[in-house]
Amino acid sequence: MPHLSLEYTQNLTGYDAPAALRTLGQAMFDSGLFGEADIKGRAQCLAGYLVGTSDTDTAFVHVQVSLLSGRTAEQKQALGARIAEALQTTLPAGHSGVQLTVDVRDMDRDCYAKVVLPG
């Protein structure tokens, strides 16, 4: 735990999602809230997207971080700010007007299940 989901629009040409996941994962680790092996990241390029009601030219990147409940609002706000700062560094040169968003959410600790298989 935690889970980091990165979504970006396909019109963001040159976006290096694996590198972005490494950058964002490092930012999460540097927060001091998680162990390195606990951070799980995934990325998805969005072929279907819309900004507003008719715009298909505006690119965006959205990060959702799902955490087990129990952290303070201040910790979650600081984590969101740290990720937003790191997210800016993941953009390819020459892109302007890109919308970047970060959402840090709690998951119910009592309803979360995790199994680690021996390996």
Automatic annotation (TrEMBL):
InterPro entries: 5-COMe_2-OHmuconate_Isoase, Tautomerase/MIF_sf. It comes from the Bacteria. CDD domains: CHMI (cd00580). This is 5-carboxymethyl-2-hydroxymuconate isomerase. It comes from Jeongeupia chitinilytica. The lineage of its organism: Bacteria, Pseudomonadati, Pseudomonadota, Betaproteobacteria, Neisseriales.
